[in-house]
């Protein structure tokens, strides 16, 4: 689902990782679709996700920071090799998203 988000596609393209995004798009993801809920006014929300392929130990991750209106403030994504498990692929975007928010001076952030 994350790799199919139309806003995140621009981030992958901007990072010259469209081919990687296309590969990850075919991976199995959550079966239930959860609708995004807006944060309160003056609060930014970080959504993150990861993908892991057990056969190769490769995976990808991404995060998006949005405001109360759903506007994308910042996004990031990456690909990793030699992951230990799916949990690690879920932790990586947190390790990137929180510092990104801090670097931009964001103080009212929720995950």
TrEMBL record:
Protein origin, superkingdom: Eukaryota
One Pfam family this sequence matches: RVT_3
Residue ranges of every copy of the RNase H type-1 domain listed in the record: 47-109
InterPro entries: RNase_H-like_EbsB-rel (IPR052929), RNaseH_domain (IPR002156)
Annotated GO MF terms: nucleic acid binding; RNA-DNA hybrid ribonuclease activity
Name under which the protein is recorded: RNase H type-1 domain-containing protein
